[in-house]
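worker-3 :: picked Transcriptional regulator GcvA
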Amino acid sequence: MPDRLPPLTALRAFDAAARHMSFQAAAAELNVTPAALSFQIKSLEEHFGGPLFRRLNRAVELTEAGRALAPGCARGFRELSTAWQTARRISETNTLTVTAGPALTAKWLAPRLYEFARVHPEIDLRFSASLQIVDLENAGVDVAIRFSANVDERYFSIPVRKEWMTPVMTPALAERYTTPESLTDAPLIFDDSLASLQNPPGWPNWFRAMGMDFEPTHGPRFSNADHAIDAAAAGMGIVLGRRAIILQDLLEGRLVAPFKTAVEIDAQFNFACLKGTETRPNVAAFRDWFFSEIEKTAYVSDDFEIIPSSGIRPA
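worker-3 :: tokens ->
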């Protein structure tokens, strides 16, 4: 039995057939004829010195040797694919793929991206608005902006400013509900987008921060933060809004925050990329722009008394 590795095309044919347990399905995946695939596997078995498949009437199954080879072969092709994609991304200095949650993308990133495009016309920016926690090593993504209480040590990560929540409403509703006590009779909107956090913030937290033991339960509930904010901007009611998600609506006057008390959240946004890629020109350019844009509106937090969650007395 030779020690040298067999041809990559033969191993690729074996991997596809082992996954599908069908020469015909494997041939379709690789866009070759079943006869061509069968020839590749036969040549692999000759190279190995024994059968890797048992040919049955209308199916195939792996021999003991085939079962030993299949997992390593599959891992090898996955790692080869990952390495190839990583090398391609590194060489493509004119493209940048960024993922962020739908709410941050709609409410914070999208209104500002024209400025990045103006300053960096050489970078082709591609966005994926998703709540899925992607594996940066395998997902073809350069930068992830994620809201979490934890930091993934595998990545280069920079925390963004602390997030807080405060009631926001239309100017018309602000004229009707002028005190924290008046909110007990107001139409309240619930943003459930942070329900997965260990200590999810909500209306009871804010009312306790104001010295009130009031736990509202009735009102429309939204699983996406941007939908809850849009409902408030349409006049449906009052929502406890997150700083980054309400910022643009506050600056443009669609919403106001009349009560200058905010509750800090036990989580924050993080800018993350693979370690070693933070110095790539396109990643560094986006990072510098991202944090400079955050600093432009940092003054908004100065208007609020921000109470840490640990400082709120329990009900």
